[in-house]
Write a structure and sequence with these properties.
Length: about 150
């Protein structure tokens, strides 16, 4: 096996980064969500491409403006590989449930199952951030019309 292993503390930090992404997104914590990205981050979901922290901020602020949207993202199977002392790549499977309304919402068909392919960078402050995230839609729920803001 030619893959470089990350130190345990880096693995845990990247697992936390991904958990924080899901939590902040689901709970409309846009400022905290933005802190997880590099300034020049690239974020693609289907045909929707967002580049740079300014565009990413606009995307997530618009998404959160609709308080009627309830979503939960569950991340599984995170695989990580060190590419240098300050960079890594990862892939995971994310299952999303989403609906407009108020909780509890009846019915629980997954809205989306997607692959997340990521690149991460460790900043001068020693925090890992997402520098590139590409979301590939694998299974799409019947009511899913595409990525929010797409």
């Amino acid at each position: 096996m030619n893959t470089q292993r990350l130190a345990v503390e880096d693995q845990l930090a990247l697992q936390q980064l991904n958990a924080d992404f899901a939590y902040y997104l689901d709970n409309h914590k846009v400022d905290q969500l933005l802190s997880l990205f590099t300034e020049q981050a690239y974020y693609r979901h289907g045909s929707r491409i967002t580049e740079g922290i300014g565009e990413i901020e606009q995307l997530f602020r618009n998404r959160s403006a609709s308080s009627a949207r309830i979503a939960r993202h569950v991340i599984s199977g995170l695989r990580l590989e060190k590419t240098s002392e300050k960079s890594a790549v990862g892939c995971s499977v994310v299952v999303t449930w989403a609906e407009n309304g108020s909780i509890p919402i009846a019915g629980a068909e997954p809205h989306l199952v997607a692959d997340f392919n990521d690149q991460y960078e460790k900043g001068l402050d020693e925090y890992w951030r997402i520098s590139r995230r590409e979301i590939t839609r694998i299974f799409v729920g019947h009511q899913n019309t595409g990525p929010v803001g797409g």
